[in-house]
Each structure stands twice: as C-alpha cells, then as structure tokens.
Amino acid sequence: MPSGKDIHDFIEKVVPPQIPASRTHDPANNLKRTDPFQFGSRFLEEGDNVYEFNAWDHVEPDDEFKAFAEVQYEKQRAAPVSDFDRNRFNTDPVKWWNLFYKNNTDNFFKDRKWLRQEFPILAEVTQKDAGPKLVLEVGAGAGNTAFPLIRNNENEGLKVHACDFSKYAVKVMRESEQYDEKYMVADVWDAAAEPSEEGDSLPPGLQEGTVDVVILIFIFSALNPNQWEKALSNIYRLLKPGGVVLFRDYGRGDLAQVRFKKGRYMEENFYVRGDGTRVYFFDHEQLVQLWGRWTPENGLKIDLENPPTAEQTAEEQNPFEVLNLEADRRLIVNRSSKLKMYRCWMQGLFRKRGGSDPAPAPAAAPAPKVDVEVVEVEAAADAENDQ
C-alpha cells in the first residue's frame, strides 16, 4: 500500500479540469466573490488561479486521478480488514460511536447552516403559519442540524425529534443550553432497529405515519449494507403519506475513500475508519434503486449490472418516489499546503407516496450552498480517521 506521503504527493500534483473561460453567460452563475459567499456557482475556468479560493464547484476529477483511484481500490481489496476486526466492528458499532462522541466535544462540530438553503422545506416548516410539523433527524450527533432549526423557528407547532445511535451524543444535546423541550426532544435510537420483546423498532414516543420530514445526513453510510433494508422500513413506517426524506451522504470516488490504507477495506465501497466507525460510499444508480425500488413485501432490489430504466422504475409505483438525486462534486483547496482534494457527496430528496396534495418535484436540484467551514471540518475528520 502507498504511504500517506505518496498519496499526499499525488494530490498535491493534481491538475483539475478547467472549463473554457466564458463571461457571456449570466453573471449570477459565475460568482467569484467571498462576501456574500454563494456555493454552487464558483466554476474553475481556464486561466483561474486554483489557489485563489478554498473551494470550487462542479469539478469532475481528471482522468489521471480516476486512474489513480482505481489503483488504490485494487490495493485496498488486496489488504482487507481481518476477519476478527470485521466481526468486532460490525458486531458492536454503537461502542465505536460512543467513543467517537466521548472523545469529540460539541465544539468539534459546526452547525449545518446550509441545510435551510439546500432543502427549502426546512425553512417552510419553521414559518409562523406552517402549523403542526414533526421533523425527525436520524443521527443527530451533537445537534448541529436540530439547534439551528430551533433558533430560526417561528412555528409554535414545530417539534424536532433528534435521535442518535450514541448515548453520548444524546447527552451532549440534552445538556446544551440550546436544548428547548418545547420544540425538541433527543433520544437514543438505532435507525436499523428490529422489533423486540422490549418494544417496537420506532423511536421512543413516535407513532407510525406521524412524521412530516426525515433528515438523513451521513447516516446510511454508517450502516452495514445489510441494515439498509430495515432502516428503509422504519423510515417508511414513520413518515406520513407525502412526507419527505432529506438525504446527503458520501459518493464513490470521494478522496476520503481513495486514501484509505491497508486493513480498512470491509467489502466493496465499505470501510472502517481508524476510530472504529464505518463508512460506505454510494453510486448514483445504487441510490436510485435503493430508494426507488424497495418495497415492504419484496425488500431491496438492486441490480447495478442491468439497472431498470427510469420509466420502468416510475411504472413500479414503489413506496418512495425519487424527486431528486444529484452528485455534488467539489474541489476543496488547502491553500497553505497547496493540496487539491476532490470531494463527492450524493444528495437526494425522496417522498413517500400517497399524499393527498403532494408538492411538485423540482425541475432540477438546487445549487449546493454548503458552508465551507462544514466541508473543511468533515474533510479534517476524514483525514484523521482514514489512517
């Protein structure tokens, strides 16, 4: 396997593709200013200094980087995690998340200020006249999604149910000065929970068909692929007809995947970090089928070799409708060390069928407006954990 220095040296030499210079199109689509900061519209054009800004939007990896990534994947497959480690990381994943939140205080995380821009429904449910709304955040962590929602809320009927796998994460939320039980409740819950003698598999205090919005930010990637089906079932049961899922997670080819070293590969696209937490990297088609073809009766039907057409998937009228699913590709630049890092996230909007008055699907995905501070914190965390 290559050393960390080898990977560092390679990404330092990366020459990202640049589109031809053009100033004839709408200036709003080619902003190059830092105040106000607007993501989704900073294109890297010929002649631009790549180190002028710390992030560029919609940058596809160049062919050299893609070839380098494939070589890395082969080396990862050749040196997988041991059977012993695979078993201990998969058997008790909550142990590793408890350690993660025990070792990282709430100051480690940045508020996700970009979510209200990226998913407008989160602004809608907090409006004064929105009426009773129930938002479930799965994998709430230290409250960096829930607390900004509460701070911006004008809706007396809003309730945010923030759940996390880790009891330490829930403890951080409950002890925060921002924790307001009038609008928020924090509980321990596993999204892939199975019914048991102790109770149902749903979060404490929540009933079937009561949730308007489910937030899944970097959650499915933390699950073992054999847990996805149960998580889908639980989320489906919780949502009202017409309720929506807001989804963001890691995409295949993200630098965090490419730089994994030996002893981290669990199975295809699935790894364990240095702190024991797990992470999966998704393909676009995989997510289309995961959300668009699952049914309570037949479970998951993912066939990446012979994928169904969009028309076939639409005709199936399965429980979830894929309103939007896009890859958010970004070039993050560390200007001090002259590093160029290709990042890739998958972002989706899914709806449970059956609503009496569903909102129309957007014609195109909104331009990503991810706060650069959030991106840099996630990148830093990945760098610390991928060793």
From TrEMBL:
Biological process (GO), any one: methylation
GO molecular function, one term: tRNA (cytidine-3-)-methyltransferase activity
Key words, A-Z: Methyltransferase, Transferase
Enzyme class: transferase
Family: Belongs to the methyltransferase superfamily. METL family.
Function: S-adenosyl-L-methionine-dependent methyltransferase.
Official protein name in the record: tRNA N(3)-methylcytidine methyltransferase
Organism: Penicillium malachiteum
